[in-house]
Specification:
With 223 residues, the chain is of the alpha/beta class. Helices cover 40% and strands 17% of the residues. An 8-stranded parallel β-sheet has the order 7-6-5-4-3-2-1-8. α5 links the parallel β4 and β5. The protein is globular. The two termini are 18 Å apart.
């Protein structure tokens, strides 16, 4: 079995001490590995690809909370709207509107995180601070979506102080957004930062949702 249950227990203990939740990143992993982690107590799983998520969701237990953590195309929202619990990487008003439209058809409200570009690399998706405020100004009154926080990916660098600064900056931005747009809303609290290589720093800088794959499942299967 590819699942490392010792790592899982250690990670869960660390996250629990910080009041954070684990998103087990199960992309490219077989259903039996997800089931094994489920049997160990894990309930939140993250997937990057719509088709793969839809195929896995069917046969697996219905109390799994599925988080979509990849870059979501608007024309794919309808396939996951019936069941997805949270969408981490919303980076445009048009995508948020599409999520609201498809959630409404299902009689649901879908929780979303707004993705902010915090890394030095140009390749990662996300809003800058001005775009974030513009989106929030325009999203007021949007139905069937609940904006619950921010998400960001740090630079791929060995400079851990830079990673820490990026996480710390996103936390400050989340706090500022809450004060301006969600002052009375307890649900606006999430900070989705940190992966297998940097989650300890993310936790120290206030992460509430940590996305971990390789520590739990081993290396990705690309075959």
């Amino acid at each position: 079995m590819a699942v490392n249950l010792n790592n899982y227990r250690q990670v869960q203990a660390t996250l629990s001490a910080h009041g954070a939740q684990l998103v087990a990143v199960s992309k490219t992993k077989p259903i039996q590995d997800i089931q094994a982690l489920y049997d160990a107590g894990q309930r939140i799983f993250g997937e990057n690809y719509v088709q793969e998520l839809v195929e896995k969701q069917g046969p697996l237990p219905k109390d799994i909370q599925w988080h979509f953590i990849g870059h979501l195309q608007r024309n794919k929202v309808k396939y996951i709207a019936p069941f997805v619990d949270m969408i981490h990487g919303v980076d445009s008003l048009r995508l948020l509107q599409e999520i609201g439209k498809e959630a409404g058809k299902q009689g649901r409200t879908i929780t979303c995180l707004l993705q902010v570009h915090i890394a030095a690399e140009e390749t990662k998706f996300g809003l800058n601070e001005a775009e974030l405020h513009e989106l929030l100004d325009q999203a007021a009154g949007l139905k069937n979506v609940r904006i619950a926080g921010l998400m960001g990916m740090a630079s791929n660098t060995d400079d851990l102080e830079q990673v820490r600064r990026e996480f710390r900056g996103l936390r400050a931005l989340r706090d500022a957004v809450k004060e301006k747009y969600f002052p009375g809303d307890e649900y606006f609290k999430e900070l989705s930062t940190g992966m297998s290589g940097d989650f300890q720093i993310a936790l120290e800088e206030g992460s509430t949702l940590v996305r971990i794959g390789s520590l739990l499942f081993g290396a990705r299967n690309y075959a």
